[in-house]
Amino acid sequence: MIGLDFGFGSLEAEFWRLVFVMTRIGAALVAAPLFGAVTVPPQVRVMVAGAVAVMVCAWTQVQAPAQLLSAPGILMVMGEVLVGLTLGFVLQLSFAAPVIAAEIIGGGMGMNMAVAVDPVAGTQSPALGQYFMVVLTVVFLALGAHLQWFALVVRSYEVLPPGQTWLGPARFALVAGFASQMLLTAVAIALPVTLVLLVVQLVTGVLGRSAPALNLFSLGMPAGVLGGIAALMISAPVLNDMVARLSAEALAQVAEVFDP
User: Fold this and answer.
1) DSSP type of residue 44
2) Could you give the residue ranges of the DSSP H alpha helices within 110-162?
3) Do 152 and 254 touch, CB atoms closer than 8 A?
4) SS3 116
5) How far apart (Å, rounded) are the C-alpha atoms in residues 199 and 111?
6) Helix/strand/coil (H, E, C) string of 86-105?
7) Residue 91 Ramachandran class (φ > 0 left, ψ -120 to 50 alpha, else beta)
8) Per-residue DSSP letters for 210-237?
9) Do residues 34 and 45 make contact, with C-beta atoms less than 8 angstroms apart?
10) Could you report the per-residue pLDDT of 104-156, keeping only the tens digit for each?
């Protein structure tokens, strides 16, 4: 199987087949927004990849290359990594929309100074971004979208079997096109709150013009924060609907990339 024989026969062949199948699944988990978070221990990702790989080995006829450490074998492994990273990256694009929306809203509210550590990326992000990400994560898991994503990972072995994993220019262009959809979704999420903040800024501007004695800096910041919080509370049902639609669109985009 790898050019070495440890004397275990068919058991050894099945082991290397399992390891080979885990390559695509493990790469997908690393790139995915939920399972690839820095707070998820690597041991958990290995166990999940192994559990899914056992089912793939039982349900499909995927075979590892005869010489895993040869040049063709290494190319096949690299192809598996490419497909797995694509599976996770497309989902990652959809999960970036709420963070961008939080940047837009936070800029209008003056809340971009309030930052927190993002457990997904391991970097700092606005506090509103954490709120949106929590809502998206809860809705994504409640809808069972993670199970559908795993089903797409398993289905990818039928569409792109090992050795035929080159996505091609058309699929790469399709993945790049999802970035524009992500930006449109971010604007749609931020639009209700941004309109309210625009009205608040216009009102404070009129007050400052009519009463020059008022301090706009001491009036505009609290008004923007209070107006933004009120708008977030009022638009909460709309946010849930948009996040649910975003979860469905994320899965649809992953399925579109791997359509035969």
Assistant:
1) H
2) 127-142, 145-159
3) yes
4) strand
5) 17
6) HHHHHHHHHHHHHHHHHHHH
7) alpha
8) H-TTS-HHHHHHHHHHHHHHHHHHHTHH
9) no
10) 887 777 666 666 656 555 566 667 777 788 888 888 888 888 888 888 888 88
